[in-house]
Amino acid sequence: MRIELEKRANPSTLYSIVSPFLALALTVVAGGIMFALLGKDPGSALYSFFIEPLLDVWSLHEIAIKAAPLILIGAGLSVCYRSNNWNIGAEGQFIAGAIAGAIVPVVFHDWHSPLVLPLMLIFGIIGGALYAAIPAFLKAHMNTNEILTSLMLVYIAQLFLDWLVRGPWRSPDAYNFPVTRDFAPEAILPELIASGRANLGFALAIVAAVGLWIMMRYTLKGFEITVLGQSERAGRFAGFSSKRMIWFSMLLSGGLAGLAGIAEVSGTIGKLQPVISPGYGFTAIIVAFLGRLNPLGIIAAGLFLALTYVGGEAVQLTLSVSDKVTRVFQGLLLFFVLSCDTLIQYKIRLVFSRLGQSNEGGAH
Amino acid sequence: MLAVRSLTKLFGSFAACNGIDLDIKSGEIHALLGENGAGKSTLVKMLFGVLAPTSGQILWKGESVRIPSPGAARRIGIGMVFQHFSLFEALTVAENIALSLSPGISLSKVAEEASRLSHLYGLPLDPNAHVADLSVGERQRIEIVRALLQNPELIILDEPTSVLTPQEADRLFETLAKLKAEGRSVLYISHRLEEVQRICDRATVLRHGKVTGACDPRKETPASLARMMVGSDVASVSAAGTNTKGDVLLEAKHLTVPSRTPFAVALKNVCLKVRSGEVLAIAGVAGNGQGELFDALSGEYPVADPAAVSIRGKAAGNLGITARRLMGAGFVPEERHGHAAVTTLPLSDNLVLARSQSDRKTFLAGGLLGIIRQAVVRIASTRISEAMDVRKSGENPAAGSLSGGNLQKYIVGRELDRQPAVLIVNQPTWGVDAGAASRIRQALVDLAKSGSAVLVISQDLDEIFEVATEIAVISEGRLSDAYPAHDLTREKIGLLMGGMYGKTEGEVAHAH
């Protein structure tokens, strides 16, 4: 027996809607099996992973906090990926944005003004965009592979941040702990509503996602992105420049990742420390694909992936399983999303007979 | 020798071949005629074991056979020369041939046998030459020799002359005559009626996967064969005639472009002029710089020298395609899928693709990122579809869902709708059914009559004689002078195509 993939004449509309849900269902099933193998009751484990966080106000706030960077980065990445530029280094741009934005409250900590916060956000965007400009320049002018360069720059950013908080930016009053001084109150992103910790970052994320959706759906710029992503040659025929698109998409996704970075340190952490992200920049790649590279879908996908973070912490507490469970769930999810997407373009057929007969034909 | 009985191949619910009956006698050249998509390729792929039939029978010398693979086809005595060659450019002729034989035969023996066969059948070939250095015609000879080495009794040739000059084609026909004299059969696939009439003993015509006629092509007229292929009469194009010629609207002066990639052709000192009311057709065998010429004239790849290309008297060589469109030029590239159109996008988006800047005021509502007025674009798209009789499913389907002919009509119509002063078209009817082809050619002629300058790059001499007022020939990146169409014959064009610049002198001499 073998499995054949037969290309559909037209992409299936049914599966393009069903696929993410199918992937979710398969992830839950695989997760249940994993809990069973760990010797935990799958039912209660899945309950505390996926349901419990939705029942408390404080955990809903936690989901919003974790969804904000995922949506911001994921929406930027979706534009990038649609234009066929593969920025894998959002994690690094997130850190670069956090560092650049933190210049104001850390280096100029004596300066108090209502301008501090807006300046921080702008610096964050610029920092992320500049860091994404490195792979953009290398791709546009040196023809390097942006997947490799952007990924490698992540580790440079992480180590640079580590050096910064242990070295020049270390707080004088932190008893030698590797952290910067706490941000002043005017450098803190305000909370959204009174009931909990969720901050303005979530609102920024929703605004950015909706804005990008409008751009992709209704404007010539969005059209240019789609065309160049589908066929560089057709884009050239239309008078669009793929080089400029590299710059545009990398700077856009880098800028949004940088904004997410400064929003995270300003809104949630309140200072710089060696590790500021539980892998948001990488998880956002899953968010982008789970959301079908559509900014509105990404809002939903970002909320769901945020749930896996919060749920992962919950099962860690209630069932004392490893904190790697979250990563496993996210990995499973990406795996199933990408495999289920195959169903949009292909039909699966099981072939039971004629083993090996027509194999030879394929070689000619 | 070979008989096919009610052979059917289904792809999903679509019948690419539907109950085909075919008889090939020994020692005959049998033509398989049909338009693109008629099912010719599917049929021969089943005969050569590349595809498995859904139902029906193949009889080889009276016995029912199953051909599960090309290897099996070769063993029973069927050889095939594909339209697209499968050769390794970095290897020599002999090495390429050895690859298709069973292992363990020494290379020198292969080379010896190959050169013996190539002399026997008049296919001069140096077994030690590297494939990368050979012309398309020579590469085809490798494929033929490779097929002959298996000593086949039936040879299938898929569109063999589409890549050859008329002189190279003549040589191929001599080889085929020799094969026939030895009692071998040839199944000859083509849509060139003139050739089929010249060399084939019998013909089977396919349309929409069914046999629509079996005949002696010599007793038919091109019109009657075309009717069998198309199913209806094909409107003939009324030529541009002798309009009064106006100003030069498109000019290239000493246009020289180095090749961008190792496989591209460099343009060498190309000069041309197209006046208002003229259709200049550029003939040439595929791969002689047509694509590169289109790129340079359209501005997809601008050149450094502004004066090298001028549009309506203004220097445009260093300008991009958008600027040239704004100067009044329109462009239709050769490749429909992924160049002239994005197949996954609807037709209205594909209209924006070519005209977002030239029709900026109509199609865009302004704003920093340019909001597209979808409703206006759709109305324009419908207008184009109606003007060019584009048949489509639904109001605004994805470009990829249209047949080649209908998509090409839309792509040409998209430019004509603007009434461009200059239109540059590369292979206007490549892979397009006869009905759509005549419609497109008429539209090009009409555009010239209305005072525009039209440049047509084409490999199809029939097309060129139908539409052109002037003809030039491109060969190895050089362009010949342009001659009035009525002063040229196919033979003269063939000589120019073969290259008048030295490298292939032998072939030119042979033709005399």
From TrEMBL, chain A:
Keyword Cell cycle: no
Transmembrane portions of the chain: 12-38, 58-80, 92-109, 115-138, 147-165, 198-216, 245-263
Locations listed in the record: Cell membrane
Recorded topology in the membrane: Multi-pass membrane protein
Keyword flag Cell membrane: yes
Keywords of the record: Cell membrane, Membrane, Transmembrane, Transmembrane helix
Span of the signal peptide: none
Main location: membrane
Cross-referenced PANTHER family: ABC TRANSPORTER, PERMEASE PROTEIN (PTHR47089), GUANOSINE ABC TRANSPORTER PERMEASE PROTEIN NUPP (PTHR47089:SF1)
Full protein name: ABC transporter permease
Protein source organism: Shinella curvata
